[in-house]
Design a protein that fits this description.
single chain, FAD/NAD(P)-binding domain, six-stranded mixed β-sheet, four-stranded parallel β-sheet, 10 helices, 29 strands, 24% strand
Length: 438
């Protein structure tokens, strides 16, 4: 049987879930000529999104830890296509892909289209600015590796300039304000606290850590509003120890080049403003070719991750609104969700290739939530709603947090290669600086 006659599974989005799914399907089905698997993504490399805050702070080197899509595809028997999906023709089972340009605006790849037998949409999420004035123009986002690296470069330049200027620091010149006290905002603040002290160690000794103020602003009455209150309280206590100011019950109404304004009239000066106050699925998904979507562009899917209006299209991860019947809501957009759903879809594709029309339902298993404050602490609760929630802090919580990334690596590389990568990382850490300095 020629490859062109095989059932074609097209996966759009190479995030944590999409890449894990393509890898597993490639090894199980493409290698054995049972199906043809293609992964489409707008980037050439993959990095685990929960680590982007460390890339932004400069404490995690994206170039050393990124995964080349083409190499992963070659090693795991699937095909990789570079491009960004922008339209869908369900009647003809066709995905349309925008032209790809380089940084100079030169077209590298013309507009194309790909047919499919089964389409899986896993394009993740982007920051939701809620159309607040000035956010797009004056805030930094952490949705992609490129944005995280831009943040790190802007931070380093601000420190270098301040270290050599002859005039006193202006109000807010080195301050950072983070809008949104979810996990991303909290973890970024702790990394920035660490970096503000490391820069002095590496020669920027004219800047005192006391010159740098880190603020987190949250519209809710507590930080981490989507997680258990005990976890919020424990995390805020740790932030207080780090002298990170937490401002609650304040809604951002406007952002200018130098300041952030709130509904109470408060004005917070800062040279760097980060937006981490909410997410949505990419805008191109909104009612794409008539599919059901919700107010944040997520595709509405059945319990088996099939879209409600098309049996040939599945969606999972942050871009999908999957029912959570036990709590009469949808499953939360977390890394553990995408990991679990990718595993389920491997079974679903096996059923589909066998000609079955009934597929297993996804049941969210909440293994708890963890928030890393870098070297200072890790706090969280384990087992979620499976048993009574158990609060953990310190070393145990840190080890569990690190294991989440290892699970992702296991899914992509297997046990042996993951262990080799972990050992290599330990050796590199002994000779590399603690922060990226270029």
């Amino acid at each position: 049987m020629s490859d062109s006659s095989l059932h074609h599974i097209l996966i759009v989005g190479g995030g944590a879930g999409g890449l894990e799914l393509a890898t597993q399907l490639g090894k199980r089905f493409s290698k054995k000529k049972k199906a043809r698997v293609t992964l489409l993504d707008a980037n050439r490399t993959h990095i685990w999104k929960p680590l982007l805050h460390e890339v932004a702070a400069g404490t995690f080197d994206a170039y050393e830890n990124q995964i080349e899509y083409m190499a992963q595809a070659k090693n795991n028997h699937f095909s990789f296509k570079l491009g960004r999906m922008d339209q869908l023709d369900r009647a003809n089972k066709t995905v349309f892909v925008a032209a790809t340009y380089n940084d100079k605006g030169i077209e590298l790849i013309p507009r194309r289209q790909f047919s499919y037998d089964t389409l899986v949409i896993a394009v993740g999420s982007v920051s939701n600015d809620f159309n607040i004035e000035g956010v797009k123009d004056n805030c930094l986002f952490l949705d992609t590796k490129k944005e995280a690296e831009s943040f790190q470069n802007q931070l380093l330049e601000a420190y270098i300039k301040a270290n050599t200027q002859e005039t006193p620091l202006m109000p807010g010149q080195l301050d950072v304000v983070i809008a949104g006290a979810g996990a991303t905002g909290i973890e970024l603040s702790a990394q920035l606290h660490k970096v503000s002290r490391l820069f002095k160690v590496y020669g920027l000794d004219q800047i005192n850590p006391s010159d740098i103020k880190i603020n987190i602003i949250e519209a809710a009455d507590r930080i981490l509003p989507g997680l258990p209150p005990a976890l919020s309280e424990a995390t805020e206590n740790e932030l207080t120890k780090l002298n990170i100011d937490v401002i609650k019950n304040e809604r951002v109404t406007r952002v200018t080049e130098r300041e952030l304004h709130t509904d109470s009239g408060r004005v917070i000066p800062a040279c760097i403003k980060v937006w981490a106050a909410g997410i949505k699925a990419p805008d191109f998904l909104k009612n794409i070719d008539g599919l059901d979507t919700n107010h944040i562009n997520q595709l509405i899917v059945k319990q088996n991750l099939q879209t409600t209006l098309d049996e040939n299209i599945f969606s999972f991860g942050d871009c999908a609104a999957c029912p959570w019947p036990e709590l009469n809501t949808t499953v939360p957009p977390r890394a553990q969700t995408a990991h679990q759903q990718a595993s389920l879809l491997v079974k679903t594709m096996k059923c589909r290739l066998a000609g079955k029309t009934s597929f297993p339902d996804y049941k969210y298993r909440d293994y708890g939530s963890l928030v890393s404050l870098g070297k200072y602490s890790t706090v969280g609760n384990l087992m979620g709603n499976l048993t009574s929630s158990v609060m953990v802090e310190g070393f145990i919580a840190r080890m569990v947090y690190l294991s989440l990334y290892k699970l992702h690596q296991f899914a992509l590389f297997g046990f042996y290669r993951t262990m080799m990568l972990s050992i290599a990382h330990l050796f590199k850490a002994s000779v590399h600086p603690e922060i990226k300095l270029h």
